[in-house]
Design goal:
By secondary structure, this protein is an alpha/beta fold. The protein contains eleven helices and nine strands.
Length: about 300
């Protein structure tokens, strides 16, 4: 898969994300061997600050060993801690925290969150700098309110939807005031008609409250992702964004089905569709016959853009 990302998708960098340091390390080393710049991204979902700090240090040490072996490595010290970590918003799980942001207690729940996030990120940077000699960043959402002074790169999860469309470019432009490179660490939309209007909340709109049942009435539209790409990539180029990472390559729990069950891939952001074992595309008709997925239209759209940059 990593070879395909490097050679067929024409990427020059990859963001390797996970909560298992051993698996991150294996994937990161494969990516480095393929000539990709590795954005080493430990993702400690549902951890507390006390649990996260040694986790980040462990991953920083691993990232440094990879860097010492000659790889180009950027360390990403977590992702949207206000949402994914415990202790910032009410709720023991992500599924419990998300509804808080849509409820009447939103403003009260957000009080003091940026201060707590920044205090902890300061501890993280102080802990990883002695063991990692490369560039350090963090994957932020607007709720985090990050102070970028300890970091080398401004890292944004920059989903656009109707909620922020009018100010999206202005908001992005302001991030360059820090005098540091700006990287879009997550951007994308789901694969149903109208998903671009919801940006990062598309999955939430597409699924029933149980989080596993697809809502009825959705229309599959791979072109929705392509239109999203065509809208935003020129903005990133014109504003001078350093790096852009589409979220994401594959959704391992959201198979595409044309019959025999719900097409869960409609609620995914991936640029390839995982094929259902019983109702997928026959192997001889696939672009990659030995693999259990097929490129979406967005895969080809990104590949064309990236190939033109070489």
């Amino acid at each position: 898969m990593i070879r395909i990302i490097a050679e067929d998708l024409h990427c020059n960098a990859i963001r390797v994300v996970g909560d298992d340091p051993d698996r991150i390390d294996v994937a990161a080393r494969c990516a480095a061997a393929a000539g990709l710049r590795v954005w080493y991204s430990p993702f400690p979902c549902e951890m507390t600050n006390r649990q996260m700090l040694p986790f980040f240090v462990d991953c920083a040490e691993r990232a440094e060993r990879l860097r010492q072996d000659g790889a180009d490595v950027v360390l990403v010290t977590g992702c949207e801690l206000s949402l994914f970590a415990r202790g910032y918003l009410p709720g023991d799980t992500f599924a419990e925290r998300v509804p808080v942001l849509a409820g009447p207690g939103r403003e009260a729940a957000l009080q003091g969150v940026p201060d707590r996030v920044n205090a902890f990120l300061g501890e993280v940077v102080d802990a990883v700098r002695p063991v990692f000699g490369g560039l350090v960043t963090y994957a932020s959402n607007p709720l985090d309110g990050v102070d970028w002074s300890p970091f080398d790169i401004v890292g944004l999860d920059a989903f656009r939807g109707l909620r922020n469309a009018a100010t999206y470019r202005e908001d992005l432009s302001r991030e360059f005031a820090h005098g540091k490179p700006v990287a879009i660490l997550e951007v994308g939309c789901c694969t149903f008609r109208g998903a671009g209007d919801y940006g990062g909340a598309g999955w939430y709109v597409a699924m029933e409250p149980d989080g596993v049942t697809l809502k009825s009435g959705l229309v599959r539209d791979e072109g929705e992702q392509v239109r999203y790409i065509d809208d935003l990539m020129p903005v990133f180029d014109e504003e001078g964004v350093d790096s852009v990472f589409w979220f994401s390559f594959i959704a391992g729990r959201s198979p595409h089905r044309t019959q025999g069950g719900p097409d869960l891939d409609m609620a995914s952001y991936s640029i390839v569709k995982l094929l259902d074992e019983k109702h997928g595309i026959p192997s001889p008709a696939r672009a990659y016959p030995d693999l259990p997925w097929e490129p979406k239209e967005a895969f080809h759209a990104l590949a064309g853009r990236y190939a033109a940059l070489k």
